Amino acid sequence: MSENGQIKHIVMVGAGLGGLAAALALLRRGFEVTVLEQAPALGEVGAGVQLSANATRVLSLLGLGDAVAEAGAEPTGKIIRHWNSGRTWEIADLAGDSRNKYGHPFCMFHRADLHAALVRGVQRASPSAIRLNSRCESVDLSGPRPVVVLQNGERVEGDIVVGADGVHSRIRIPIAGADKPRYSGCYGWRGVVPTAQLPEHLRAPVGVNWIGPGRHVVQYPLRRGELTNFVGIVEGEGWQVESWTQQGTVEDCLKDFAGWHEDIQTMIRSIDVHYKWAFMVREPLQKWSSGRVTLLGDAAHPTLPFLAQGAAMALEDGYVLARALEAHRDDHQAALASYEKARVERTSAIVRGSNDNASRFHNPKLADPEGAAQYIEDQWAPEKVRQRYQWLFEYKVDEVPV
């Protein structure tokens, strides 16, 4: 434990992408880190993750550049397709030339591959840092240092406790009160398909946004192009289960996309397991910390997945938090205040931008092919694309003031 108030031991609650990135960044700076993970084994659900240059920069800074090359899939570009006609528009793309523009690639990952790379990084730095079967029940703030109380009654004390425990965070409760999510009006379908099972014209290594009235589909390559990720977003009621592991049926998924292009029907039929989850909305917190406790990732700023920045925000949070704690080792208040100052405005803007994109992808004008063409050419004009995305991609976690 620390002496003279110096920060030495960090307790990280949650071994997701953000918690592991933070742990690795802290270990590389000489901190002692304990990662408490409720699951009995390490692993992630089968889903795709898009990481733009701002996020792959974090992986490079953490010494995980090889993981990008080994497990990622770099798209050659991005296209928009009309939901019914299948008409294609190549859009001004800030991703295809990402290495030249931003110094780091735009890369798609199977979440399990990215998670495994972070686990390996943490375990190389500290083999015993990650503790499994360690479910957090609460955090005790009554003493001079915070104590995480586990389900089995064990108490784990740290100089700083970080809630990286997702949308259902227990650590968030003493900071922001009880969780109050509301249904966003959208739910999603997701699944992964072996690319070789798809017709050749659906195997191109590009990111595709299918847009239509009231719903949209995103498809993109994973794992060096060996897999294709499918995500279908639907406006509607009747499904408010917020779980990554809840399964639906192929029949219900096909029904939700009835009338959509045959390529969509082909992908849906090719998915082995159709997962279905509700999108819940929570207001982004303006205060992430209390005393020696703080939050990162979805625990602080859960967002709708319409800017593809959820995982990126968690990785950014973890790296900036480590920098702030290093810069203010003797002053926990200054450390957490500088972390919040560096992150709250950006993450809140991303949450708002994601909400804006939902209405853009689902606009009623997309119903009519002629009106859709005019709408798409206006909304995805090069200058508008740059305004929406450039500020996201050019962010540098290692240069923002802390």
Automatic annotation (TrEMBL):
The chain crosses the membrane at residues 6-27. The keyword Acetylation does not apply. Coiled coil: none annotated. Residues 10-353 form the FAD-binding domain. Keywords: FAD, Flavoprotein, Membrane, Monooxygenase, Oxidoreductase, Transmembrane, Transmembrane helix. GO terms for molecular function: FAD binding; monooxygenase activity. Its cofactor is FAD. It comes from the Bacteria. This is NAD(P)-binding protein. It comes from Variovorax paradoxus.
